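Can anyone check this?
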Amino acid sequence: MNGSATGLDRAFAALAYVMPLASALQAGAYFFSFLAQQAPPVLNADQRLLMPLSPLVAIESIPILGLRGCILLFALVVRNTDISRFIRFNVLQAILVSFMLSIGSLILNILGLTRGFLGETLLNVLFLGGMAIVVYSVVQCIRGMYADIPTISEAVNMQMPS
């Protein structure tokens, strides 16, 4: 909205987007192999940027721990009205984005569309779309504003306890 969130609220809200970041990175295998061949300096820069988050991404990448993390965040943060609405909104939005990216990857795996030109293209779309949402949302969190992602933000607003 107007950027009135405290610095701590902004940091915690931005931290929630580690979940969709981990989901997007799992879909980015083909993209990273392309970068390794075509643009190694860009890949090195990406790896350096993501290095501080690597322990959180590793934990989130383990399916059962990621699911437990989502359930705990939902129960302890989203449903807790003592926590600021800004944090709760961004945590729930991050959970939904992560869920959508994971379901997209799962559907591609079930249908056997993870290889070949079509599979690479679809996984790259998931990766790039997920990264765009994560970067946009984190920037909006740092600015103290709500990230308005069509349909997802509307669903989050409907599920937010007052």
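Reply from J.R.: I decoded it. The chain has one domain: 7-159.
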